[in-house]
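TODO from last week: model Bacterial surface antigen (D15) domain-containing protein.
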Amino acid sequence: MLLPAVLLVILAAAPVKSPSRPAPGLPPTQTDSGSDIIALPMMTFSSDHGLSYGAVGGIYLYGPGKTPYAHGIGAQVLFSSRGVQSHYLRYDGPRLIGPLRLEAGLEYKRELRSPFFGAGNLSAPDFRGDVDNERYAFDKGAPGGWFRLRGRPFGPEHPLQSYVGYAWRYTSVDAYDHSMLTQQRPLGIEGGSTGQLLVGALWDTRDDETDPLEGGVEEIALRVSGQATGSRYQYAGITLSERRYVRLSSRLTLAQRLTLDMLFGDVPFFEWSNTGGVNVSEGIGGMSSVRGIERNRFSGNIKAFTNTELRFHATNLQVFGKSMKVGAVMFLDLGRVWHPGVPDGEWHEWHPGIGGGVRLSRRAAIVRLDYARSTETGRQRVYVTFGHMF
C-alpha cells in the first residue's frame, strides 16, 4: 500500500504551470496567473517513528513574475504508530514585500517516548537498542510558531541571501519514574517556553534548490534566546553548514554536507539535539543527521556531522503519462558530540552509519527510501520520507 501512495504523491504534486528557465540557485518563475489546490493522503515510515499516516495539502496562487508562485499555503496532519503527532500550517510568500520572501508557520508536535540518552558522545553505554524502553525516553508536547523574512540584498540573481526571524515554542516534559531523565534531572526538565531570535546568511550557487546537480550553499545562522525573546532559558546557538554538489558524469553526482552546531549558556536538554538554519536537523542519529543510528542517540551542546552521498540517475519512467526520475544512492554518515562535564572520548571517536537507497522524483517532489546500518552496533534502520536529506 505504501508504493501506490508514494506514486500518487509524486504525480499529483507536480506543478501544472509551465516554468521559464531560472537563474542559478533560483526556482522557476511563473509567467501566468491561476492556482493549484492539492490534497493528498500521506504515508511514510522510519524505524524511529514507525508507520506515519495522515494528509498533506497545499494551495498555490500564481502571478506574473512571481518565483515560484505568489502565495503558498501548506498544511499537514500526521500521526504515527508510536504515538508521534506532527501537524502544521505554513505560509510562503516568495515576493510578498517587494523582493523579500516571508515564510511563517504554526506547528504542534507530540511525542510519546521521545528519546533521551543523556548528554555527550559516550552517553548511555548500557543501551542495547530497545527504543521503547522507558528508561531512555520521556513524553513531550511542543506547540509553537515561527516566521522568517528572507531576501537577496544584491539582486535576484546574486547568490547571497540573508534572513531574520523569530520562533517560539512551549515544551511540556513528562518524565517516567525510572528514566535517565528523572535520575539526571538536567536543566529543562520543568519544560517551558523558548523564544528565539533568528539571523542568518546563505551563499547559494546550486543549479536547482530541490534536486541539485552542481554548485553548493554555505550558511551561517545565529539563534538567541532570553527574557527579551519570551524564553524561560538564556542561551545562544551558532550553526555553520556547507553543502556541495559535484557532477561526476551525466548520471552521477557527488553530494557532501558538513554541519557544526554550537550552543552556549543555560541550554535546556530538549535543545541539545537541535540545529539552527533554514533547514533544521536533529541528532546525532536519525534520518536528518546520521542514518542507521537511533534518533537523537547522542546529543549535547556541540554537534558535528558529515554526510557523503553518491547519487545515480538510473532511468526515467512514464507513469500515467508523467515522467518520473528513478535514482539510487550510496551514503556514509559520521557524527559526534562534545558536552561540558561529561566524557566525550578521543577526538577520532565518531559514530558512523552506512547504507543505500532509492529516489523517486517528479520535478520538485522527491521520495526518499533509505536502508542504513550502524557499523558500531550492527543495528539496522529503514526510512521512507520526502525530499533529499540535504
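Done. Residues 4-31 have pLDDT under 50 and may be disordered.
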